[in-house]
Amino acid sequence: RVPAARPLEGVRLGVLTNYVTDGVEPEVAAAVDTALKHLEAAGAIVSEVRFAPLDRLPDINRFGFSPIEAYAWHRPLLEKHREQYDPRVLVRILKGQPASAADYLDLLAERDAMLAEAARTLWQRFDVVVAPTVPMLPPRVAELVSDDDVFGRTNALMLRNPGVFNFLDACSLSLPCHMRGDAPVGLMLAGAPHADDALLAIGRGAEAVLNSIR
Asked: Which of 33, 42, 58, 148 is 20 to 30 A from 12 (CA-CA)?
């Protein structure tokens, strides 16, 4: 059952101002800003928020859960079938190879600490936290196919903002917020862990507002 749309009157939107906005392209920033103005006009309470722990995320997550766990699972297969792996997938799996058990336990502890901080400073203050889904417009496929370095940087940037809310164990959704005919831009709405129904209700309300202006 999909929850009914929730009117936006009084809904508290926290707009993240650090980390998720690094390197944001002007077209993305403009589309997100316009969307937020319309959501505010529909009754949402829009406030900027800086979540300082995110600035440490690149160091905390330097190995990442996925590479560590993927390498542990694929290790015996890599010994026999390494040449059959897609090179770009293999690079990401091997990122977990140098991580020790202590590194993995540290990562778990750091994540628990960040979840506790988010519970205090984000989810108690806001019904939804907002960020650009990705900070850039869709790249040209030809550039990604021909250059591994460009692909790696672009892929990491595209995964960065959704990865933030994965790390925070949050539920999230992305709503189109660009004008029709423009390159696609997504507005990501994220809610507290296990608050999927509440987020979906707010998301449906926000979607109705954004659809009316696109």
From this structure: 58
